[in-house]
Amino acid sequence: MSKIKVGVFGAYRGMTMINVMARHPDAQLVAICDKYTPLLDKCKKLANEVGVKVALHTDFETFFNEDMDAVVLANYANEHAPYAIRLLKSGRHVNSEVLPVDTLAEAVQLVEAVESSGKVYTYAENYCYFAATQEMKRLYRKGDVGELMHGEGEYVHDCSGIWPNITYGERDHWRNTLYSTYYCTHSLGPILTITGLRPVRVVGFENPNAGYMAKVGSRMGASGMILLQMENGATVKSLHGNLRRLPDSIWYSIYGDKGMMESDRWDGGINRVHIFREGDDTARTATSYQPTLKIDPALAALSGGHGGSDFYTMHYFLQKLLGREGGDECIDVYTTLDMAIPGILAYRSILGGNIPLAVPDFRDLSVRGQYRNDKKTTNPNAAPEDILPVCSHTVNDISDNVYDEVRKTWESSRQY
Question: Where are the alpha helices (DSSP H) in 157-209?
């Protein structure tokens, strides 16, 4: 196989992926699909600038019929699985944006679609590819801090100020019907990437809905906290949500039995690592530094999105398909579900009074049956018997006027 013929579904979040695939020497961007035509106009302009011919679609069915080896899914975060499953069954490889599934039933369907199709599925959890995250993975696998005893991950991002630009005043937009622990892989994913361990038990907690989020139409708890026990007995805390803070908290910490390391919480952030190595009185060391990039800077510069991590989700996907070095850095479907399922189950824990729940390993065929028909969700479009409350705390009704005002704000500020 020479160049990989790639399509991208979803041009808002997908614009970063489109930028990479339009310029990457191993990719041929052939098609883009989005329901919002001004975004497609922006894509057409990019294609003309780069000198590539790209088919533009507002309808997924016509997009689906394009000649594509692989598709990047960058559509709504709770709608990736149905498209991934269909594409895999049609013989296409899939790279899925965050998050992989909306329900446990979809998790079973997704893993079985990957297995039966024999096609490549990778997960674009870009936070696993920050410079700090990758360096901490290298250090951990080298044994510098020993075996994990406790880990913490945070993705605290107060989105209230940008809510109009990402929800458009739609009452039932997926972000407005999201529950607090769902969007967990930005905080949890890197911990699993660093250590290679999987979670086996989960407990969830959430804050009430915050007034500053209700003002822009969100009905979920302001933040969700997931507590986990890992397969080796270690503990992990995953915190994410719309808590008040600047700059955003993207932070990871690993405590091992020989030392500890963490990314920088403030100034260096995702580009700096602090590490303490245990030893005798003369061998103890504590250092702080900025890791170097793993890929040629000119190639990596195809995308500076999310600290440059967006590039790696696309580059490694291409290398995986081509059987080249770097392909093993991709996140497979089983690890993907290890990152995402704790968020689904943590909310079940919350609704059940913060009870501990086992985290299933979908590598094991025998455990899938009990989840095959589990379609519980907060998505208002689901069957009535499957709909869960968006928040475990009482949420005052949000009037249509709020969503009207949010839409007006979006319309007055949008650039395309």
Answer: 163-167, 185-195
Q: Which two tokens stand for residue 77?
A: 């975060």
CATH class of 131-297+333-386: alpha beta
Q: Which residues face 275 on adjacent strands?
A: 261, 287
- Written as six digits, the tokens of 46 are 């990019």
How would you class 113 by CB atoms within 10 Å of its CB: exposed for 0-12, middle for 13-18, buried for 19 or more? Answer: buried
8: left (phi over 0), alpha (psi -120 to 50) or beta: beta
CATH 3.30.360.10 domain range(s) in the chain: 131-297+333-386
Which positions ≥6 away from 211 have C-beta within 8 Å? none
The label of the residue with tokens 């674009």 reads 124
Q: β-strand 235-241 against 223-230: which pairing, if any?
A: antiparallel
Residue limits of CATH 3.40.50.720 in the chain: 4-126
**Tally of CB atoms within 10 A around 305:** 17
Q: Span 4-126: which CATH code? A: 3.40.50.720
pTM above 0.90, yes or no: yes
- State the Cα–Cα distance between residues 245 and 112, nearest whole angstrom: 41
Q: What tens digit of pLDDT does each residue of 75-129 get?
A: 999 999 999 999 999 999 999 999 999 999 999 999 999 999 999 999 999 999 9
Question: Which residues share a beta bridge with 238?
Answer: 153, 226
pLDDT band at 221 (very low <50, low <70, confident <90, very high): very high
Torsion 312-35-33-178 (CA) sign: positive
- What HEC string does 310-358 produce? HHHHHHHHHHHHHCCCCHHHCCCHHHHHHHHHHHHHHHHHHHCCCCCEE
**3-class DSSP state for residue 186?**
helix
